[in-house]
């Protein structure tokens, strides 16, 4: 895939507010990665590797349940972003992502992202703002789901535990 094609995907998927020059800066900081169908892209529990921009292909996202078995969270096709939390936290990957088809990625490693931030790259800051917006949206959807599940007086114990977890999450909120 040509850099100009990757740049256009970066501008449409990662951050619509990027100028062409800023998108080019991010593309130049990425590494092309190919993953064959059936192979893992990221493994739950592994150290964070960076943001994977899926350029071509389809992947399945799985997470281990309390019983240790992997449960499918869904499939997603290109173009999209995976592993974005890797850029903002040092926590291990939260899910396993497996290529369902041959996939092409542009990988922005944590190290490259750190260099962009250290160089006060406006593109990196815009990307960070976009990631924050996405994560905030996910928290809002989680809040809505918790409220929906706990709306009944006699909610099952696991739902009550989820509500308690939500309260704990907000009581321990720190910046």
Describe this structure in words.
The chain has helices at 3-14, 20-28, 110-118, 122-150, 157-171; strands spanning 31-35, 40-42, 50-56, 58-64, 70-77, 80-82, 96-99, 103-109. It is of the alpha+beta class and 175 residues long. The protein has one domain (3-171): Jelly Rolls (Sandwich). It has a 4-stranded antiparallel β-sheet with strand order 1-8-3-6. Strands 2-7-4-5 form a 4-stranded antiparallel β-sheet, with no helix packed on it. Helix 4 (122-150) runs antiparallel to helix 5. It is globular. The N and C termini lie far apart (40 Å).
According to CATH, the homologous superfamily is Jelly Rolls
How would you sum up the major sheet?
Answer: 4 strands, antiparallel
Q: Helical amount among residues, as a percent range?
A: 40-55%
Q: In terms of per-residue confidence, which ranges show pLDDT below 50 for 5 or more consecutive residues?
A: none
Cα-atom radius of gyration: 18 Å
CATH class: Mainly Beta
| Bulk shape | globular
| CATH structural fold name | Jelly Rolls
Number of E strands: 8
**Helix and strand run:** HHEEEEEEEEHHH
The whole-number mean of residue pLDDT values reads 84
Structural key phrases:
globular, 4-stranded antiparallel β-sheet, 175 residues, alpha+beta, Jelly Rolls
Helix and strand layout, with pairings?
Layout: H1 3-14, H2 20-28, E1 31-35, E2 40-42, E3 50-56, E4 58-64, E5 70-77, E6 80-82, E7 96-99, E8 103-109, H3 110-118, H4 122-150, H5 157-171
Antiparallel strand pairs: 1-8, 2-7, 3-6, 3-8, 4-5, 4-7
Helix pairs in contact: 1-2, 4-5
């Amino acid at each position: 895939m040509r850099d100009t094609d990757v740049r256009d995907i970066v501008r449409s998927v990662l951050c619509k507010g990027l100028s062409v020059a800023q998108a080019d800066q991010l593309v130049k900081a990425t590494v092309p990665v190919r993953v064959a169908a059936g192979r893992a892209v990221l493994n739950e529990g592994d150290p964070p590797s960076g943001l994977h921009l899926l350029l071509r292909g389809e992947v399945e996202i799985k997470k281990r349940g309390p019983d240790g078995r992997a449960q499918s969270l869904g499939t997603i096709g290109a173009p999209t972003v995976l592993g974005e939390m890797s850029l903002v936290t040092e926590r291990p990957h939260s899910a396993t992502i497996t290529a369902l088809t041959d996939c092409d990625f542009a990988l922005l490693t944590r190290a490259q992202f750190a260099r962009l931030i250290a160089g006060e790259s406006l593109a990196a800051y815009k990307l960070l703002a976009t990631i924050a917006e996405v994560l905030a949206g996910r928290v809002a959807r989680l809040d809505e789901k918790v409220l929906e599940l706990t709306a009944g007086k006699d909610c099952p114990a696991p739902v009550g535990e989820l509500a308690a977890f939500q309260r704990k999450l907000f009581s321990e909120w720190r910046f």
